[in-house]
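Q: I'm a student working through a structural biology exercise. My instructor gave each of us a protein and asked us to get a predicted structure, then write a short paragraph describing it. Mine is Kinesin-like protein. I'm not confident about reading structure output yet, so if you can add a plain explanation after the tokens, that would really help. Here is the sequence I was given:
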Amino acid sequence: MTVRTPGTPSSKIDRMTPSSTPGGGPRIKEEKIVVTVRLRPLSKKEQVVKDQVAWECIDDQTIVYKPPSQERSITPMSHTYDKVFGPSSITETVYEEGVKNVALSALMGINATIFAYGQTSSGKTYTMRGITEKAVNDIYRHILDTPERDFTIRISGLEIYNENVRDLLNLDSGRNLKLLDDPEKGTMVEKLVEERAKDDKHLRNLISVCEAQRQVGETALNDTSSRSHQIIRLTIESSLRDNSGCVRSLVASLNLVDLAGSERASQTNTDGARLREGCHINLSLMTLTTVIRKLSVGKRSGHIPYRDSKLTRILQHSLGGNARTAIICTLSPALSHVEQSRNTLSFATRAKEVTNNAQVNMVVSDKQLVKHLQKEVARLEAELRTPDPSVHSGSEVPTSEKDLKIQEMEMEIEELRRQRDLAQFQVEELQRKVQEEQRVQLESPYKVKKCLSFSGPSPLKPAKDPIHSGKTRNTMGRQSIRQSLATPFTLMSEIRKLEHLQEQLGDEANRALEVLQKEVACHRLGNQDAAETIAKLQAEIREMRSIRSIAKEVLVGEVVVASNRSVGANLKEEITRLHSQGSTIADLEEQLENVQKSLDKLVLALPSNNQQTNNESNSKQNEHSKKKMLPLGNSANLQHLIRTPCSPMLSSRKLHESEMENKDPENDVTSSNETFNRSEKAIPTKSEDGDASSREGTPCFQRSNSVNMRKMQKMFQNAAEENVRSIRAYVTELKERVAKLQYQKQLLVCQVLELEANEAAGYEIEDENTCELQGPQVSWHETFLEQRQQIIDLWDQCQVSIIHRTQFYLLFKGDSADQIYMEVELRRLTWLQQHFAELGSASPSPHGDKAAMSLSSSMKALRREREFLAKRLITRLTAEERDTLYMKWDVPIDGKHRKLQFINKLWTDPRDFKHVQESAEIVAKLVGFCESGNVSKEMFELNFALPSDKRPWFLGWEPISNLIHL
Ligand SMILES: Nc1ncnc2c1ncn2[C@@H]1O[C@H](COP(=O)(O)OP(=O)(O)OP(=O)(O)O)[C@@H](O)[C@H]1O
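A: Happy to help. First, here is the predicted structure for Kinesin-like protein. I'll explain a few features afterward.
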């Protein structure tokens, strides 16, 4: 048996606004979600540890944070909701005053949902049990009071445990029921049993069966903590008993949802299975929060990610759709839970802004209609067979009246036929349109212009960015932007451009290496090893270039792509090809890294360094040397590269000739040719000196006794040194650009995935002309803050490396150029979250370790990373600094595992800004992130590292395309 969401059991459903309910129900068109808050009393556990009460309900709509005595001076922060219930309120009051109206809508054909949301142990199950009990009482009371209608009540029960859907009334049906999408009927749970309740006792019995089957476990906060989301659905169908004239019935579902509680592992003290459950719970609650947040800013705020969790998929109609919804947010009053309570209230505040659009669901059942007509025919036939004696007495129903009735019935049948034909016509029309559209898309990709609405703002790129220039629209000052480049065709064009950039970078890298090799050859600088390494690298890069199959017809900067392939069919192929070059980019990065190392060696081997090292007594000179050995900043040195004869920068950078002309010769201001020529001339001069030629690899000017010669040599030395440094800086820049390319590629992969997901889900793809967002204006700063919070939450959910978090957090502070990075990070994490959720319900991956990246592998990697950081505490901090931190972070100073205990506390509370900031600062100090000073945003490296990388914090973090084996 299959159940639909929302349950609509019959074949033909008419929806009408409740104003036209036959029973005259309440007039509802749009209605906000009803949000109530229930504050429970302090639990025994909380009392034992002398926890304090931090919240107070000051009236029936307002709850205030009541700070502990020392903070009394602070004005209490108040929150207002539809109803607020204090610790002394009983569940009956919560039901009567808070949710009864919503619950009983189901009797009038309006779908209704009541759910409890809150931290673990805050009283959700306690409240929902009472609410369910009261609702069942009222439903049966109403049935008794409405004898004119015939009621049928069916019940189904399911739980979502570790992102698997289980039937609570039939455990044999399997551990993970499939969700099916039906464009008309919504999300359906395959094979979910629906039992018809004979009476209220039977219904209660079935509810208790569901509750008994639910997954419950013990945690530090709750002995009987619900480890799954439970949805009990009552489907109520009713029709008039005397249905002579009415063949319609009302049908609606009442969903009673007891969510699992949000929890922090540190508070629930969970590990193993409990911890895994907690992660799944938090992930799906996070999606629920995101859905509510997006709905709260208006339905036009772009794509609502219902599909990111099974919970939101199943409850889709209750969240912004055809249902009346009431949410009871439960709170613990304890001071120790104040942060979690704040999160719950922030969810409640958002939920208040969500608007639903409930309608009366009427069913015209073919069966019912046939039954009714058969009855009528039988009655008429009976009348004809046994003529009523009264006919002759003159008291019969006049023939004209009978005819009238028959006529009416015929008309009704005719009307129903008409409606059926119309519906059929509409379906056919729709099918025709879909086919037509597919045909047009295949035949003429250029004509199809569509856009997808992405979740959140899309990355705005500076105009010079070839990937985005001309692709994002200026929305006349609106900061919330929709991106319109996600058609298969446009994406393919972007992929081509990306490839082209990739090729350019490869070329530039190669040219840089050639220059370097010449430098090495001309000046005989550095050691033989380094020269060989560079030659080898150069050969490798050349080989790399030759195997790259780049479409030469690509026209960068234009949308036109000279490709004779069919667009839609090849998109995936294109991405696969692009991804296959991922390793090339990674190789390029790695090789550039090696080049840089070789250059470092070269710099170390420079004569001035040797000379200065030997001359340690000269402290001034030594200092000068040290200064020269500092890592070079990227931009400051770029212009120097221009001086080298084969500078790749010549092709890509505009020079300021005048600047060059005015430079001091001591600092090699001359043109690159001059430098080169002088170097070449300098060597024989040194040889003539009769001293230098005999020792290969030894800088000849070291031996010269001539003052002029020394001067000249010094000049050559400076020029050579400068050249090597310049190349080094240029290689750094190349590395940055490669990294940036990786970001852009990831963004494309994300967009393709999103496109596919949306298309698979049958989401409406809007016409480009109508795709601009009409939503409220949001500044980039606000968007940044919101996105950052989302990212921090997702890091926590997905157990992402805390070194990665730290670097990202400290690098991206809201600059407008950060948009692309924020967007990519967010998309990647969202994808990862979904990937984990899906893995949770799948059997182990057959693809080996790399493919089987899961939440548990992330957790393992994170554990190793924390151990690594714990060791660093010794080397990076003084004993005094450590003790101060232990005290501040409540770690026993003489504890056995205090280092790890301390590290385990970092990055554990994504919602506490101060905590996040401090955690980032500490981790940065431990890994020396802030000290290096030259990590640029583009160099932000943790993002695309492959698992082969040895650095511990790289473990468990991969590009999405690796994970999906594109
Ligand atoms: N309003 C209340 N009055 C008295 N006791 C309550 C109230 N709410 C909850 N409790 C008690 O608090 C404890 C935890 O409640 P409950 O199990 O309902 O929490 P929960 O939010 O469902 O937790 P979890 O998410 O872990 O399942 C239970 O012992 C329950 O009896």
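A: Here are two points you could use in your paragraph. Residues 273 and 920 are 29 Å apart (CA to CA). The radius of gyration is 36 Å. It's a good idea to check both against the output above yourself.
Q: Great, thank you!
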